[in-house]
Amino acid sequence: MSLRVGVLGCADIALRRIGPALAALPETTVAAVAGRSPGRAAEFARAFDCAATDYSGLLARDDVDAVYLPLPPGLHFTWTRAALLAGKHVLVEKPLTPTSAEARELADLALARGLVLRENFMFLHHRQHHVVRQAVRDGVLGAVRSLSAEFSIPPRPDGDIRYDPALAGGALVDLGGYPIRLAQYLLGDGLTVLGAELTTDPDRGVDLRGVVTLAGDGVTADLRFHLGGAYTNEYTVAGDRRSVHVARAFTPPADFEPELRLSDGERLVAPAQDQVLAAVAAFASACAAPNARRERGRLARSVRTTELLDAVRGAGLTPAPR
Asked: Three-state DSSP class for 98?
């Protein structure tokens, strides 16, 4: 039976990307949508031929098996917790929560109730990163020494939620999690924060850019992110024999042919892939056959990401989200 998903929040990513993926896959369907604005919810519902309701109403519906939650990060804890208590599986936009204490509480709750809770870092489902990780493990680069990664986007319009400290806005939460999670994926979970520098906009009260250095087991990761810079999303993994560079790392279009260039002129081969479809399909598969051991491992990595976000704030002298 198709997984019946309720969309809790009418964010642009839900309308343009996740909603169409849920509708396109045979294993998922959009059952209902909830919004703060009845008009916005009704517009979304017409696009996907589903019911429109409010947040609490969606969680009470018997025809909703799982919830996709694209709300601002500052609301992730409250509504993810409510969805889990209502007995729903949850796919929540990244990061799971802005802080590790909240993330641990949600992870414990999901595991105790036998529910799937996934953090929607879609780039992890693209095969180009699987190819790079396999090259790292196979010694194609020699002994890996470093990772350099950057994710930056142009300024957003005034009033954008990313500039609202009450909603856990800022570059670290919105962008910094990507290179941090990439470093975990390629270099392992034993990384710690060696240093960090965050630049905060005094008028808005949120950080706009940052530089983070992670270290562990003979490797370092130099990570940069900028809310208000030239669009950049790329990384390089360097070993003692050669390196590999990955362009369009975090948000490649579905038809993008990855360019995995080795420093000696060779290339690693990876196919084009729709990472949105892949992420949604993986969530549906996990909900169809929940596996406690698998979910415990995935949640541990998500919690570790939030622990690193906390450590970056400490090193960068930026307060935790309110």
From this structure: coil
Rounded Cα–Cα distance for residues 182 and 223 (Å): 10
Task: Map out the domains of the chain as residue ranges.
Answer: 3-122, 125-282+290-316
pLDDT per residue as tens digits for the range 4-41 = 999 999 999 999 999 999 999 999 999 999 999 999 99
pTM greater than 0.90 (yes/no): yes
**If you ran DSSP here, which 8-state letter would residue 166 be given?**
G
Is residue 128 within 8 A of residue 260, CB to CB? The reply is yes
Among candidate residues 4, 88, 89, 94, the one labeled active-site is: 94
Section 145-151 average pLDDT: 98
User: Do 53 and 30 touch, CB atoms closer than 8 A?
Assistant: no
Task: Determine how β-strand 206-216 pairs with β-strand 219-227.
Answer: antiparallel
Which tokens belong to 166?
């009450």
Active site (annotated) includes residue 94: yes
Topology at the third CATH level for domain 3-122: Rossmann fold (3.40.50)
pLDDT tens digits, one per residue of 73-84: 999 999 999 999
Looking at residue 78, its pLDDT comes to 98
Radius of gyration of the chain (CA): 19
Averaged pLDDT of the chain: 96
| Dihedral of alpha carbons 109, 292, 178, 189, sign | positive
Per DSSP, 202 falls in state T
Cα 202 to the chain's mean position, in Å? 27
The class (CATH top level) of 125-282+290-316 is alpha beta
Rounded CA gap, 20 and 318, in Å? 37
